[in-house]
Amino acid sequence: MASKKPRILEDNKDMVWSLVPLVLFCIIIAGIASQCTFSPGGPTQGPIPSVDIDAALNYDAKELGFPIRKPEVPEGWTPNSGSRKVITGDGGGDSSTVGFITTNGSYIQLTQSNAEEFPLVSYVAGGQRFATGVEDIDGHTWNVFGGEGVESIWVTDVDGVRLLITGAAPAEDFTTLARNAGQAEPIVP
Questions:
Q1: Annotated region Disordered: where (predicted)?
Q2: What's the pLDDT tens digit per position in 105-129?
Q3: How many Å apart are CA 59 and CA 86, to the nearest integer?
């Protein structure tokens, strides 16, 4: 005959006492691997990565076959990213992108490209966006693309180069970057 379980193992306490060592073991392993932290005050802002925007745009101005501009940005905006991509397909081309964290902590990016407007918008948006209006800023007409629950995209042509702005920043920051990018002179390599 099988022996009877001890009384401590005859109710829900059995499951709890079985899980306690397992949970403690998982916490110890996660702590050793530095995969979790305890922050009773909630998440904190980490350092913003920075990019040498001058070097990135100067390099792109030398390598790409179209004029690249370096817009002045307000004090407190931190350049935090940069990339250069090839947009493939009909109407594609090269692109140079720089991103900024604004003073209020929002992200905004400027892409300069020799690609046509719709392939560029589709590439940056990762899909289809719909025209939702226009913004006239200092003599440049910016076509606005958007939709419900997506970031806006503003696009204009300046001397045959497409300038595209997108990000989670408010419209005032889009206007500031659009004005400064439209007024910036091309970098002379």
A1: 70-90
A2: 999 999 999 999 999 999 998 877 8
A3: 16
